[in-house]
User: Fold this.
Amino acid sequence: MENLKFRGHQQTDQPISSASLPVVLSAVVACVLSVLALPLPAAACTNILVTKGASADGSVIITYACDGRFHPHLRQRPASDHEPGAPLEIKNWSGDVRGVIPQVEHTYAVVGLMNEHQLAISETTTTGREELENPEGLLHYWDLMQLALQRARTAREAIVVMTALVAEHGYRSTAESFSIADPNEVWLMEMVGTGPGGDGAVWVAMRIPEGHISAYANAPRIRQLPPYDPESCIYSDNVVSFAVERGYYDPASGVPFDFSAAYDAPTQQSRRYTSTRVWSIFRRAAPSLDLDPAFHRGEGGAEPYPLWIRPDRKLSVADVMALMRDHYEGTPYDMTRGVDAGPYGTPNRWRPMGWEVDGERYTWERPISTQQTGFSFVSQSRSWLPDAVGGVFWYGLDDTYTSCYVPLYAGISRIPESYTVGTIKRFSWDSAWWVFNFVANIANLKYAYILEDILEVQRELEGRFLAMQPVVEQTALTLADSDPGLMTEYLTQYSVGQAEEVVRRWKALGEHLLTKYNDGYVADDEDESVERGYPEEWLREVLRARPDQFHLDRPAAEETDLPY
Assistant:
């Protein structure tokens, strides 16, 4: 198991190979440099990876839900030429310069977390062993994502770029799982630091087999390593030897080496927090598997879920968007049911997730869709189309359930202004994030009722974007033949125009909801206030807790109309 190099590939300043990988997003306290104005450390995310053989139209699709209380700023970086070896500043998320690395001769254009070659990258923080964080390393995971998008054309090239950079400059983050996608392939890479004074990182990367999907949620999922194969599984020279050196693995035990067990072994608690999300994605994509909840409930001896599965049917972009909008509906863990969901079935649970009553510890469920999402995306990469047209960065702000994904094409030259401004410290109608957040918070007033109003607009807009996609792209292809510059402007105007129209619609929706559901009443079509009260199921829960306080004997109840 030694000398486990990415054979056949040498690091250069220029890209060197081809591949593709879908990516998923989410981070709890912050986000990545290529999406946000400033990078922030991540702690919670959910990714879905879909190979082209598992998608309905042959797209490679990945997702990312970046979760946490922060205000994201979408960023677009143009392609640029540089003096080779010129100093490139690496900054902390505070903006302070942490170090310098050599710049490459040419960097590619990037929109959010997709570049001009349809390469997309997302991540999920897996924490790992605390002692393996290296404060002396230069590059955080978000630095690696940004640099790979600017320097690589394919998923395989991105892996080469990222691993070569940490080998040369050091890895500063804890443990991270990366989803990397291009128009042809999907790879996942797990990376762990080597601790203070250590060199580089420990890592493994595996290609998702065609026709399959995978999912990640804040836990490493690669276990036993197959033989090194540049086409399907590659890893660092030190992946086993470092674990032996640090006492994480004993070769004399007779137990096969397990990457996850060595570097970030799951606990009963962590399985609840992470694996429930993976289970829910898989149970919706492949109900026929009937996956046992025992593992994500932390039961001893339960088998971990497979690293990838074949879905019962091929997934469309709309299907994948739907998977990102999940609160375990229809399962015993349904967050829209029960007394904990309140009278109107809200799936949101206010932090902290863990709590204590009478000396006993408890935790809320952690869903895929959460009120703490800063942004999310669904990336679409297609091999049969020119890069400018084939790559679509479907971008949504705030909670995935109450947001709207807008199509931003890989070839656009600018991005919507409202997605680039604002701060969490001050509300502003000029900020798209605040507009979506406003609607999401109103929904909590009477979730079960209000949600339908939101979904009606969401379905209309997303349905229109998906329906218009063939027409928009055929027009772009026609323009590409005669005037590539005009094609770029056409895609830019379409992407920016639709995004800003969504923000206008969402602002109007928020104002409408605030008046329709005001002071506990619901306005009907004639703007008359209707008393909707509370669901009987919830009233029964109230009476079970305090059966006498609210009781009226029958004569009193009959004689009093209680007009207040």
Q: What stands out?
A: Residues 385-523 form one domain.
